[in-house]
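S2.1 Query sequence (Prenyltransferase alpha-alpha toroid domain-containing protein)
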Amino acid sequence: MPVHPLLPTPTDDYRSDTSVIQSTTEQAILDLLLPWVQPHLIRPNTIQLTQADTDKGNDENQRVPQQPGSRPISTAVLDRTAHMKYLIPGLNHLAPRFTGLDASRPWLMYWILNSFSILNLGLNTADRQRAIDTVLSFQHPQGGFGGGPGHLAHLAPTFSSISTLVSLLGAADDELVRDTWARVDIGQMYNWMLTLKQPDGSFIMQQNGEVDVRATYCALCVASLLNFLTPDLARGLPEFIAGCQTYEGGLGSASQLVNISTRSHRIPLGEAHGGYTSCGLLSHFLIKSLEGSLPVVPLDYPACLRWLSLMQALPIEGGGFRGRTNKLVDGCYSWWCGGVFPVINALIAESPSSTLDEPLSDEIRLGTYDRQGLQEYILLISQGQPPGPVPGGLRDKPSAPVDHYHTHYVLSGLSSAQHQHYFSTSEMDSLGTAFDLRSAPPTFIGIEETLGQATARARAVYSRALAWLTLEHDQLVIGAAQNGLIPIHPVFNMRTPYVKRAMDHFYLAPP
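Output structure tokens follow.
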């Protein structure tokens, strides 16, 4: 729990709609924190709201007045049963209000089924096959996946469809794995992705769609998993990603090439944002696999680390993360910001200016963000604790309802905060040796690649993607012991053994 006084965000004595909603949010969070916080940290009149402000933003039914410090944090529980009951109906018939998400069916399946996986829940044989068949019905005949049967192919549902299949097949028998992946047209998908590539190296989401760094992440994840991350697919992306970094340190939505005098420069579009920073950093990590094939432009890693650390909210906001400067705290950034710390730490450790041969020191590795504070935000604010209602599912903040999106990314952030992930160069070397013994001939060879170069490139992608270790001695589970979740891959946001199962299928010859 917080060790510093719970002081409100300064408003400089200027009242605005923004300051009102910030104060209202802090009050709602404080109400939920009170039973868990020591009395000396509570200041009299910590937040002063007018009655109009309270009526505008607070739901009195959410308030559970209790004595400060009356409950130890060790008794806080992640209500797995409630979350399971919330998630299961989404695999069958959705309520009419979900009609507007008809083009997001692959995302709903990914959010629900990957939440199952993180909670260590599984499907029976019939439901697994039904889920696989449903995902494959989204496949477009010209490559990629759409948001539903017959929809246009789009990079976002392609990512969520492939990720869902990886999750579904992680514990399946070998025959089902082979049969399912044989039904995915990898060649058409690769050709389709190449049609989305723009002259500056970036990707559009779909034909005639928008450019942003989310498209880059979706394309690189799928290409890395399915073994078609060629130099042709990646060319120009290092410059595009680096150009997304703003003066704040985080990354914006995209970058644009402009000519100033006689030189070309890339300028970022928009302010730094947690989601774009995550997509950009993870894309940058993946594309560093191709350093032997194309130049990789570095980012300002310390500036990015600083920005990410500053996105963790004040004690009075519960220790969660916000996605942009001066915005409200939001549970989904538990993953988009909190989940990316292992990757930024790895990038710093392997940068040319670093001389680290071992994992980062405890002071750096454990101190870049408050893992305990984030878990407390999730347990006490995103979920809530009895005697208040715990309906199942996880939410953005007290004023927001639960939904599948936030349930998934809050659980992802909770898992990441509980487990310490370390990128191991020695593990990467071991994986490279295993690859040399069993590598399958590459299916996709770049236009300017030889067979040997394509094999070396596939080796680098495979070994780099899987070289993450979970340091069990650094596990930190706040609250009851039963709150512990399954560790997830910090780049792909799925169970690491499931990622390896998929990549073994596409990169290695059968045993």
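The mean pLDDT is 90. Residues 274 and 323 are 4 Å apart (CA to CA).
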